[in-house]
Amino acid sequence: MITPDTSFNTFKVLGLGDNVVDRYLNTGKMYPGGNALNFAVYAKMLGADAAFLGTFGTDAAARHVRATLEALCVPATHSRIIDGENGHADVRVVDGNREFVFSNKGGVARENPFAPGQGDIDYLSAFALVHTSCYSHLNQHLAVLKSGSRLLSYDFSYRWQVEDLIAPVTPHLDFAALSAGDVGRDRALEVLREAVGHGCGLALATLGPEGAVAYNGKDVVSVAPVPTDVVDTLGAGDAFITATLLTLAARGWKRGEHVGPQAIQAAMEKGSQFAAEICRIEGAFGYPAPIHSQVTA
């Protein structure tokens, strides 16, 4: 049972962009997920006033994600609904390890990219923090999103390794997160320094079993993972990022302000603890449903 943190109660945060279902082929179950959606749900679990804004399809997967958000009291009232297939990713578990075997790359969200209008900018300006990702198809709008937000964070996941994203994206960000468990700490630090050098206020890399490392332009801060009984690692990185960001915001972090190493350390420790708690839940945050479409394991 995750206990909300009362220090987050006054914070309005928004997950902007991707939502999917992760379809576990071995069990025939699908779970809501996606970087931006996970952020909104995890922020709600931690006690923040969280909402989601994105694009949904009209299939069973989309209906399940929307119903789950409603059950969790995470509003998605400004989201688009487009006729077609919602985003999904197919997962197979082999010898206890989770493998992604197929993705429709966002479904209708990819086919009909979200273009924020003035009404969207007015809406997101009410939030203390807006979080999006490389899977949200919003890179061309980041300058506008930054101008309309108080803090803008972005998850590069693993895409920074295969696309030229760091230089064009990081000038528009207050916070950058990237997955680097397969390249190691030294390479991760190179990229974090590059991100901050391009104007991002704070950059962080998750390193899998090695924990995480952050860079603020001056200090390198590391944290180890919290030991736990792992049920499913899906969403652990998003959980770490969410708790880290909320902790920094609760301490009063504002755009353009330097974040000191002690504040970063405390925030990352909160992130590690929350990630360990999420690892004890099936799927990103539970809420399974049967896979309705015909897929094979």
Notes on the structure:
By secondary structure, this protein is of the alpha/beta class. The protein has a single domain (about 5-290), classed as Ribokinase (UDP-N-acetylmuramoyl-L-alanine:D-glutamate ligase). The protein contains 9 helices and 14 strands. The protein has helices at about 35-45, 60-70, 110, 120-125, 140-150, 165-170, 185-195, 235-250, 260-280; strands at about 10-15, 20-25, 30-35, 50-55, 80, 90-95, 95-105, 130-135, 150-155, 175-180, 200-205, 210-215, 220-225, 290. The strands form 2 sheets. It has a 9-stranded mixed sheet, sandwiched between helices. Strands 7-6-2-3-14 form a 5-stranded mixed sheet. Helix 1 (about 35-45) crosses helix 8 (about 235-250) and helix 8 packs antiparallel against helix 9 (about 260-280). The protein is globular, with a radius of gyration of 18 Å. The two termini are about 30 Å apart. The mean pLDDT is about 95.
Task: State the main characteristics.
297 residues; alpha/beta; UDP-N-acetylmuramoyl-L-alanine:D-glutamate ligase; nine-stranded mixed beta sheet; five-stranded mixed beta sheet; 9 helices; globular; kinase activity; PfkB_dom; PfkB_Carbo_kinase; plasmid
The largest pleated sheet is described as: 9 strands, mixed
Strand-and-helix sequence, N→C? EEEHEHEEEHHEHEHEHEEEHHE
How many discrete domains? Answer: 1
How are the strands of the biggest sheet laid out side by side?
A: 5-4-1-8-9-10-11-12-13
Overall geometry: globular
How many DSSP H or I helices?
Answer: 9
| Low-confidence runs of at least 5 consecutive residues | none
CATH superfamily: Ribokinase
Distance between the termini: 32 Å
If classified by CATH, what would the architecture be? 3-Layer(aba) Sandwich
- What is CATH's topology name? UDP-N-acetylmuramoyl-L-alanine:D-glutamate ligase
The CATH class:
Alpha Beta
Counted beta strands: 14
Strand content: 15-25%
Structural class: alpha/beta
Mean pLDDT: 93
How helix-rich are the residues, as a percent range? 25-40%
